[in-house]
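pipeline/complex-builder :: batch 7 item 3
reading input block
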Amino acid sequence: MKKVIKQTTKKYLFVWSVLIYPTILFLIFYVGVNLNSFALAFQKIDAVTSVRTWIWFDNFKLFFKMLAEDLQLQRSVINSLKTYILCFVISFPLMILFSFYVYKNFFLSKVFRLVLMVPAVVSSFIMGLLFQKFVQVGMPAFFLQYFDKEIPNFMRDSRYTFGTTIFYAIWISFSSSILLIPNAMKEVPEEVIESAELDGVGFFKELWFMTIPLISPTLTTLIVVGISGIFSNVGPVHMFYMYSAYPEVYNVGYYILVKTMTESTYTLYPQLATMGIMFTLVLAPVTIAVKVILEKYSPFEERKKKNNSKAVMRVRRNEAK
Amino acid sequence: MKNFRSKICKLMSLMLVSLMLAAVTVFSVSGCGKVVEEIDSNKTQLYIEYYSGGLGSSWLDAAEADFEAKYNDIQVIITKTDKATSMQVQDLQSQKPSAQIYYGVDSIYYQAINNGDVADLTDILDRKPDGDTGLTVKEKILDFDLWSRAGSKINSEGIYMLPHSDSFFGQVFDYDTFVENGWIEFAANTEQVKNELTAQGITFEVDAITDRLIFKSSTNVTNYEDGDYIAACGKDLKYGTYDDGQPQTWAEYMALLETIKNSGWKGFIWTKKYSPFYSQPVSAAMLYQLLGEDGLKTYKKFNGSFVDTLGTFGEVGATITVTPETGYKVYQMPEVKQTIQYAKDTYMNSAYYNEDSLNTDTDHKAAQNKFLLSYKKDDPEEGKFIKPTAFLFEGSWWENEAKPTFQMIAEEGQVGRGYGERDYRYMFIPKMPGQKGTQYYIIGQGCGGMVVSSKQSAELLKISKDFIVFSLQDKYLKMAQLDTGVPKPYKTNMTEEDYKKLTPFGRFLSEMVNDTKNVRIYRDSVEFYTEPMNYLSGKPDNGTFVTKVTSGANAGVYTALDTGLERLTVDEFFNGIAENYSPEAWAGYYNLVREYYE
Amino acid sequence: MKRNNIFKLRFENMFFVLIMIILIIYSLSLLLPIVWTVISSFKGIIDYEVNPFGWPKKFIFSNYLEIPAMMEVNVKATNGNVVRYGMLPMVLNSFILAGLPPLVVLFFTTLVAYVVSKYNFAGKNFIFNLGIIVMIIPIVGNLPSAMMVAKTLGTYNNIFLQIILAPSNIFGMNFLIMYGTFKSIPWEYAESAQIDGAGDWTVMIRIMLPMVIPTFAVLFTLSFLGSWNDYLTPMIWLPSYPNLAYGLYYFQYNASQLGATMPHILAGFILVMIPTSILFLLMQRLIMSKFTVGGLKG
């Protein structure tokens, strides 16, 4: 019992000696600084004198009213969700396939590894500028000259504007994953791969049964990070349209940005703070739930428990011999 | 594995050490920059923060040098910055602001003014910067009434902000191109016109082929040179002035747009990317000109009455009373709908606009370049991406901003197209049907203010005020105007020699600003912050037409007129404004500012 | 059976050939902005407007030569002197601001992620969930508070303190990735060290932290690249220490006054990209080097 207490004390001493410094800084520079901002959701601020008055839940009532009546806000929420789902469905599998390709050192993989990092190295100003020029000037001129055909302006025609912003978001999305995921894929033991290859296990099986399970913690992290940004992500909307975007491309992040930058900000701070808290109250449990579910049913954990990977079993059998 | 790990550790350590070494260099007080001005411990330092984006600073540098020469125990240190006014206000609100005097890009200092973070400057209004024979600071300020309201506290107490910079907005056109293409209104070859010219001291001859009058000489200063065609006089009834040759009625203006279109040119180019700042001032000028001064008061102060010719509130022709509590009604004044219609008929008419305006990659500089390069229209190679355009929506800073393009054009060998060689002017809004305004309206946008921090010693406060008065001498005000072509919001004594140094556009601006009888400069961005309903209520109108369409394929909120008119009809846009400023929504806005109106 | 296998193998080959084609097209599309920027940076402004996608009519090398003089920024030093920063000093500031704060933050992020992932203690789940909430919650209008705290505590315009106090928010994607990385490292490594008498600190410093070095390097590279292009931090919090990104931002803003055109601005972007590209290429070997997580046997 004494030993247990001593070990527990030692453990806590160690844990808190690591945590103390970041905790103090967090309390001062995050909680202390932002407490005012959190409190704003329950207050009214006089824009002239900056005097705050507690109005408790009036801002929240206003938020629900806005959500029920403000068509643009409703649309923004739907667009934010649509953006995440579409980007996830398209770019997530591609990200895994591209990473696997690079990890396996297939033809030109070293080149791809470098080039796919371009959006992280090149300023977003350049990426955005050329994209806009190409879509609105280059492509129409090209089609007119060589095919004698007029194509729509994909950044102005209401049928295509939203899709174009999704396309751009996907286009620049692979730069961080192409570093992270192949790195995580390297965790698969080489002898297991070799053994699998000897058994004629193809790339798909290797990817599905071995690689993905082992990198599932990294994938879980990326999914969780993605979900957490659903309502704060402005995407390329501001870069393309500044403060007067077409209504069909609005998302929640952009909606808040426009309100902040084009209307009498100080008066609106409480409403924006409330909006932030409400979206957090919705998204935080969802994010945590997704994380818990993914970790619970993660093939990585399952593999450790059940240990039924054919290739792994083969290795163990060989070892036993 | 061990080898690899040690290599990694070595590399990381090397990086860490070099970063630390570099950090040690930077930790020194001045970092690793080169000291250009050192603090003189024997002098008192006066710090100035100056927003310098495109406004020029040679006048301030000259004032600094002369002030230091006069008061050799004072050292003036100017930091040129691109910080927005809101950041300057944060600085002013802190316990120790980093400067004593702040010059801003706009005049949004109301928080600092009302919180006591800036000093009262009332006592310098009666001082005379140019000596006993000159004007007082108050007399020098153009539109003192506006600036005194904008610079005082919300209870009208004191004056805490003075004007620093002015800027105007309009439809830029190349007068020389218009003359070459025959697009201006030429003076008619009639006895009446000839008598008027003679009475003005202008000698002329008649061109037998074109039947136009050709300028020969004048006893007064005019814009003409020997050989120029004489244009019809404008509202000022004088020949050879800034408003000659412009269409005087709406019908003439629409006919001009058709003529331009039929010549293979586009009518208008601007940057929609920075909407609403680049096209909306043109619409605003239309609206204010339609309303006239009385209507404008009702519209801007949400207090007055108007005749409901559209029957929006019931009976057609009824007089509708507006109070701040029912202020939403101003957005349904018939002139608002008329303005939207005119915008749709002109610059948002696909027959007249340059499509590049609506592309997101066309920023303000690209719009300027496309306008300036219109002369390349006939070049088979270079004309491919150029659509020649007659009007550019821009601010008064535009010619200065486009200097690099002018220089390149001149270097290409294009004679007469370099900086200051073309006669650019603003085209005024002609008289519209039902117009109540009697003057040309031009919107003043982005007018900057200057303030002095109150958190300093009495000695430094006195020095700050002395410097401000010193810098408002005529020579520095003129220097600022000569530097950029844009006059400061103060009266200046420009001589003929001074005018000759200005570009034709600079001279145009000067004439326009000085003709207070025929031109109404409405400094919209400053006026906005004199009305609590505008800037304290949270209503979505930062000087824009904001519409909310609740049904149909184009449903949504459009925060700029040009974005909305791409998709919506005039009725949809106008009715959507009522949706946006509904009585229920307005009640919420009014609630926040009730105390200032009751 | 054999025919089936061959068919599958061929299908897999075809599939990965398809992936290769997609990657080629995608890579070309990513290289296009760089190529276009480099080509356009040698044009004059007229050439840029009338010939946006073509080869320069005349190569104007002076666009690059004129940049260093144009990108100079005057700032007020902490002692009140006015100091002029040229390109090279700004590059140095960029290295410091992009290198040190992310390094310090990432170091503490790693430590916190380690204890949260590997130790059971009261508050562990709270810390993790707090990390997620902090990532989601948007902060509105905190600049006045932050400025007040910074000026009161003396961190405003103090580069040293800002580096030391950088780990005020160790949460975010980096925390989750480090957490996940540590989670995937078996505790057996620590157990075998503990059997040999290693304490918690020894296990952390000598066993666990070295295992995450490649991940650390990846995250540091990404943070570095992100901070390199950040002009807001020097503008708001370190006005006496302008970095290259701020210099470029200021240059863009005042381009017309300086006689600069869009091709000049593009040339400026290329110059700013060069150090990060070199660093990234150097880090490639470190990040991509293969190594096996062995050591449990024997």
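note: DSSP finds 15 helices and two strands in chain A.
queue -> next item
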